[in-house]
Amino acid sequence: MSASLFEPMQLGDIALANRIVMAPMTRGRAGAGDLPTDLHETYYAQRAGAGLIVAEGTYPSRHGKGYCRTPGIESPAQIDAWRGVTRAVRRQGGAMVLQLMHVGRAATRHNKAADAQTVAPSAIRARGTIYADGHGLVEMETPHALAGHEIAAVIAEYRQAAVNAVAAGFDGVELHCSSGYLPMQFLLACANQRTDGYGGSLTARLRFVVETLEAMAEAIGAGCVGLRICPGNPYNDMHDDDPAVTYGALLDAIAPLGLAYLHVSRSPDPALDAFALARRHFGGAILVNDGFDGASAGRAVASGVGDAVSFARHFIANPDLPARLRRGAPLAAFDRALLYTPGERGYTDYPAYPADVADVEPTAPGQTVAPGGLQS
Ligand SMILES: Cc1cc2nc3c(=O)[nH]c(=O)nc-3n(C[C@H](O)[C@H](O)[C@H](O)COP(=O)(O)O)c2cc1C
Predict the structure, then answer these.
(1) Residue 346 falls inside a structural domain
(2) How much distance in Å is there from the Cα of 194 to the middle of ligand 1?
(3) Known catalytic residue: 347?
(4) What is the pLDDT of residues 124-163, one digit of tens each?
(5) Would the CB of 374 count as within 6 Å of ligand 1?
(6) Going by CA atoms, what residue is nearest to atom 22 of ligand 1?
(7) Ligand 1 pocket, 176 CB below 6 A?
(8) Of the N and C termini of the chain, which has fewer Cβ atoms inside 10 Å?
(9) Active-site annotation holder among 67, 181, 347, 350
């Protein structure tokens, strides 16, 4: 019998009430000290009807901060502040993991603490710009190439961040290994020219991601750790000659870990079916993402393409997305100008669909989202 979007499921140790996942979204609302605020509590609690919320990309250490007003999970104050958010979500019956996002070279010092450093596998600058408050768009900077002992320290930071996330009340963590950030920089030769066992051959380029996942799984349990990939994603100046080979090898290498889930986004390369690749190489639960609406998500789960579907943009203006999909209610459109702006406008002020409006038959969404949209 085929599964439905509205059925419960288990992702490793994490129980989901339905298969509609809120994908991670950077929203630029962190407060002083890179803390989540009361606004985050409201925002995520409003969206707790998702079977699982993957909270926005959050830096494991200050060296990994990329964008302005993004939160961390490093300091005791950050852990405390996140605790308020996870409690608010739990009160609404939701489950929540934290996405660990270390941007590596996709960074500018203008967005980070004075004692933080931009690091990467090799001292190769990503061609492109990044926004910084007070500076506008600036060039991304040339990173410091991590020495061998510094790689061990970065892996230890991820491990500690996973421990901190659990202390903050999260059900687990997701490693952001897409969008040209640090783990992906290790995977691909365009950013990784090392010759010390962490670069050179494909097996060596996989090593950082494998060891990071091992460290996090050892610390909090593999059933609480997920991995996010998007094979062939060129974002932040990345290039992969053969993403099917890279990610097939990566998934084979992590198979023994028994992670909670794999979160896979559609490849921008139309010739590569990233969902099928994931099924071939990953034995656990698979979350599929990018450009889904209610109907296509229902088909993806019913046909077994994915075990659950994650939605990002539809969750922005539809805090009650699962209820709307179930009722066939129309979907509201979000305001692009308010995606990353501080404050509640465009963040916590999108209303739920009125309860007193009669249920309607499923319709096309009010705003379609094309695959390969915004990301960070
Ligand atoms: C405002 C915004 C912020 C995003 N931030 C993140 C992020 O922090 N981490 C991440 O892995 N993806 C991020 N993404 C990508 C989304 O998780 C998702 O992959 C993409 O929007 C496609 O899914 P959708 O078609 O359901 O919107 C972001 C997307 C948007 C629109």
Answers:
(1) no
(2) 30
(3) no
(4) 999 999 999 999 999 999 999 999 999 999 999 999 999 9
(5) yes
(6) 290
(7) yes
(8) N
(9) 181
- In sequence order, which residues have a C-beta less than 8 Å from that of residue 130 and are 6 or more positions away? 66, 67, 106, 107, 108, 111, 137, 138, 140
Provide the 10 A C-beta neighbour count for residue 26: 21
Answer whether residue 201 is part of any domain: yes
Question: In CATH, what number is assigned to the domain containing residue 312?
Answer: 3.20.20.70
CB 236 within 8 A of CB 67: no
Centre of ligand 1 from the C-alpha of residue 221, in Å: 26
Give the contacts of 354 (CB within 8 A, at least 6 positions apart). Answer: none
- Among 58, 54, 57, 44, smallest CA distance to 20 is for 54
Burial of 353 (0-12, 13-18, 19+ CB in 10 A): middle
| 226 pocket-lining for ligand 1 (C-beta < 6 Å) | no
Pairing of strands 52-58, 261-265: unpaired
Look up the domain containing 172 and give its range. 9-338
